[in-house]
Amino acid sequence: MTTAKNPLAWRGLHLMDSGAAGLPGLRRLVDEVLAPRHANVLVYEIDYNFRFASHPELAGPDAWSGSQAKELADACAAAMIRLIPMINCLGHQSWKEPPGALLKAHPEFEEPPGGTAPQAKLGAKEFYCRSWCPRHPQVNSFVGDLVDELLDAFRGDAFHAGMDEVYVIASEACPRCRGADPAVLYAEAVNALHGRIAARGASMLMWGDRLLDGKATGYGDWEGATNGTDRAIDLIPKDIVVCDWHYEPLQAYPSLEILPGKGFRTWPTVWRNLEGARKFMAAASGRGDPKVLGVLTTVWFPAARLLGALFGGDDTDHGVSPSGENPAAAASAAARTMQTALEEAWTPPA
Ligand SMILES: [Zn+2]
Fold first, then answer.
1. How high is the mean pLDDT in each 10-residue block of the chain (350 residues)?
2. Domain extent for 282
3. Is position 113 within any domain?
4. Residue 109 CA to ligand 1 centre (angstroms)
């Protein structure tokens, strides 16, 4: 890792995979964007898009091979960038419908199980993402196999397990989870993953929102939890690096006290809104707390769109999204914020 010259020692990018075809662009991203800005971590959210030997049924048509993973790992190593593979675990097993690759191949893992998911309700406008059942007797060993393979393929010494925005948990329709404390269920899932990751001597990272009381902190339903999972903060190992995401400018960031206060290394995470990024980074570095690690920039659209914004080419999405946002313009703006935040993490504004 590059030696930090300021307190923002972990300077990273989280990026969502859009297929192995993006590899040449990712190599350019490492060499031409991240390395010159002294970034030292790339969190690569590949999810299930890998040719897993243990579970080949998960691979999509543009899934990564082991040799492609090695190529990205080599590029990151040459640039002194720590490559951390990621699967978004527990929640986020779909965007509305249909299910993502895990539940498509293994619908038995869904919470609630047994095909009892109320599809009409799940397809409703307000429905967000599916979850797996943390008490399915096979799910932890299954996902643990994937974690092992990704750590091997990407030569990772850390794994990001995601675990944000879990809204389907402790379903009354699940005989295993019915009546259980959501905090206990959530902690069981964290601890199972942590056990598998730590057994290899690797570090675990995860998002922080489910560990924060959305009401007490004022963070609300997204940046915090209002369904009781937050009490899991006292039920999980303290060596987990918690990625504390806040994207819009806020008056206060109580998580910068809460998470390190519980003993967690805390990695402030930003996205797109430059004012919000600057405000959160200033609040973080202002604490002078060695447990507050630096900044993780994020890009919440597929890698191909970011690469298109950075390097041109035909891999930029076209058209206008339902929200009226032009995707290419939004990608360019997000790319600028990401680059500026990394630059300012290295050389803070006077
Ligand atoms: Zn369950």
1. 56 97 97 98 98 97 97 98 98 86 95 74 75 97 98 98 95 95 98 98 98 97 95 98 98 98 98 97 95 96 95 61 74 95 91
2. 10-346
3. yes
4. 9
CA 13 to chain centre: 10
Greatest alpha-carbon pair distance for the chain in Å reads 58
Give the strand pairing for 41-45 and 131-132. Answer: unpaired
Report the SS3 class of residue 189.
helix
| Nearest one of 114, 96, 111 to 186, comparing CA atoms | 111
pLDDT tens digit string along 26-77?
A: 999 999 999 999 999 999 999 999 999 999 999 999 999 999 999 999 999 9
Helix (H) or strand (E) holding 191, with range, is helix 182-198
The alpha carbon of 174 and the centre of ligand 1 are apart by a number of angstroms equal to: 5
Query: Domain total for the chain?
Result: 1
In degrees rounded to 5, what are phi and psi of residue 181?
-70, 125
CB proximity list for 36: less than 8 A, separation 6 or greater: none
Cα-based angle 174, 108, 230 (whole degrees, multiple of 5): 50
**Which CATH number characterizes residue 273's domain?**
3.20.20.80
Please check whether residue 5 lies inside any domain of the structure.
no
Query: How many angstroms does the Cα of residue 131 sit away from the middle of ligand 1?
Result: 9
Q: How remote is the CA of residue 50 from the centroid of ligand 1, in Å?
A: 26
Q: For residue 81, is it within any domain?
A: yes
Residues 89-125: tens digit of each pLDDT: 999 998 877 889 999 999 999 999 877 666 666 667 7
Q: Is residue 4 part of a domain?
A: no
